[in-house]
Structures are given as structure tokens and as C-alpha cells.
Amino acid sequence: MAGSAGTYARGMDRDENTAYLEWWANQSTCLARIPVTLTAASTKGEWEAVLSSPPDDDALNHLQELIEASPYFTLRLGASAVEVQVQPFGDTDHLELAAVVVA
Q1: pTM reported for the whole predicted model
Q2: Per residue of the chain (103 residues), what is the pLDDT tens digit?
Q3: Which of 27, 39, 46, 89 pairs with 96 at a CA distance of 20 to 30 A?
Q4: Contacts of 48 (CB under 8 A, 6+ apart)
Q5: How far does CA 20 lie from the centroid of its chain?
Q6: Three-state secondary structure along 41-91?
């Protein structure tokens, strides 16, 4: 699934990109793939994500259930991927992401 925070590609450092948040039940079952617009935060390894499509109530409820079950998603940008911890902030379509550092 995802590599360690130290292995993400340079592309994830750009100012703004379209990416996907994926929530995996196990190594072979992806239960959600959510397109987001990604903006790098001032701290390396942190991003702000805005859902690319305005979500309806069902989609927001589903996303909230996934976050409550486990806030760890795979952030995929092209061929690069990193595990991130997701938390909602601000508007309902905004998320805060932080890379998970694997020791």
C-alpha cells in the first residue's frame, strides 16, 4: 500500500495537485478512492485536501464513518503513495492530512 513518509515523491511537495485518498480494508480491498485537490501546508509532510466534487450527505456520512473506523488513508499522487492520517477541518469538504512516519 503506502511507503514511509520519507519515500514520497517530489511531486507531493508541489504547491497544488490533484490526488486520491484511498481507504484500504486490507492489502487487496480498497473501499474508497476519493479525488482531492491537494495543497502543501507550511510543514513538510502535511497537506490540506479539498474534495474535488461537492459531496452529498451520503458521501459525507460514508467518509466520516471511514475516518472514525480508522483515520489512516493512502494518499496517491501518480505513482507515488504515502500513508497519511486524515482529520476533517473547516468546511465539510476540507481535510487535514499528516504523513505517518514509520520508524
Answers
A1: 0.79
A2: 444 333 333 444 445 578 999 999 999 999 999 999 988 888 888 999 999 988 888 888 899 999 999 999 999 988 999 999 999 877 778 999 999 987 6
A3: 27
A4: 38, 39, 41, 94, 95, 96, 97
A5: 6
A6: CCCCCEEEEEECCCCCHHHHHHHHHHHHHCCEEEEEECCEEEEEEEEECCC
